[in-house]
Amino acid sequence: MGSRHQVRLLxxxxxxxxxxxxxVFLTGAAFFQIGPELGIGPFGLGAMTxxxxxxxxxxxxxxxxxxxxxxxxxxxxxNVAASATVVALIAPLARTAWSLGLMLVAAAVMxxxxxxxxxxxxxxxxxxxxxxTVFGLKHAGIPVSTLLAGLAVPVVVVDIGWRPAFLIAALLxxxxxxxxxxxxxxxxVETTDRRTGAPLAAGELHxxxxxxxxxxxxxxxxxxxxxxxxxxxxxxEPAAGWLQFAGSGASVTARIVAGVVVDRRGGALTGxxxxxxxxxxxxxxxxxxxxxxxxxxxxxxxxTGWGWPGLMTATVVGADRQVAAATSAVTQAGVFVGAGGGxxxxxxxxxxxxxxxxxxSVSVCLGAGAYLAWSVAARLRRPIGxx
Length: 387
Prior knowledge:
Radius of gyration: 19 Å
CATH topology: Growth Hormone, Chain: A
Order of helices and strands: HHHHHHHHHHHHHHH
CATH class: Mainly Alpha
Mean pLDDT: 83
Number of domains: 1
Low-confidence stretches: 187-196, 382-387
Number of strands: 0
Largest sheet: none
Structural class: mainly alpha
Shape: globular
CATH superfamily: MFS general substrate transporter like domains
Number of helices: 15
Strand content: under 5%
């Protein structure tokens, strides 16, 4: 496959995941307007975010098998068309908390197919020596979504409101359709080197799904509550939006750097343990920071606590490239469980106690995830990755 086609496929994968997650993160970023208008508090925001990701968790394994059957091209077309439709409907029809929540759930069903489709496409067209880097780039999709959501605050939401921001998101989704290659899917693995790693046993795959669930708590805490937490510490609305924009950029950079390092030196699980462990420390000190130090800590939190997904997917895809859609859907379901249950619990923590207690809770989750990932590596007696 030519390099130009590979770049297009990578950009398509990032863009599709971005538009699939943009509704929930745009809701979080614009919550300072949406909440008062629709009568929703922090717990309500957490509940809607939880419903989004838990719905995606429930649909992901089945949709991963569906992608395996119908092919990634067809799955992408269905995903993009449905995502654009639902996001466009949010602007005129979201008049109550229930109506917004139901439309976010509808968007979540299609989000369950976006990662399996993207992972299968990239697994078929990526050389094993570049897999960690490519999936690090691919997993820029969600932080790019929060980046766009944060950018929308000072550029669109503050001046003309949150509803136009959702209409713009729908237009972005329609543009992604143009990137999907024509034709039907091939069979077999289309790479110049068809090596795979040792297949993962079901128990190992499920343990990694648990790691993903624990790590996702940090991701959703940043994507859903960071802007509100920054406002509470004294940031202005535009400054809080720009901070989320910058933090998302730090996450994207971390994913790419981690992928490059693993492709050169090997050991994806080692990198995974390191990022989760350092992230646990960063979130632990976050409540003790203010002003510029808070901003620096947020950037570090994005880079560590949300810099690991590319290494997780590279691990699973490297174990068996030909069924990447089905196996990666299992660990992705773990991500969705954490991203779904996380905001529900964290929203309740914020309402009952404070954002400081919430950041400490995230630290505990990352620490537990780091330990569990280390236990998987120790059980296998080798780092899983591309070595």
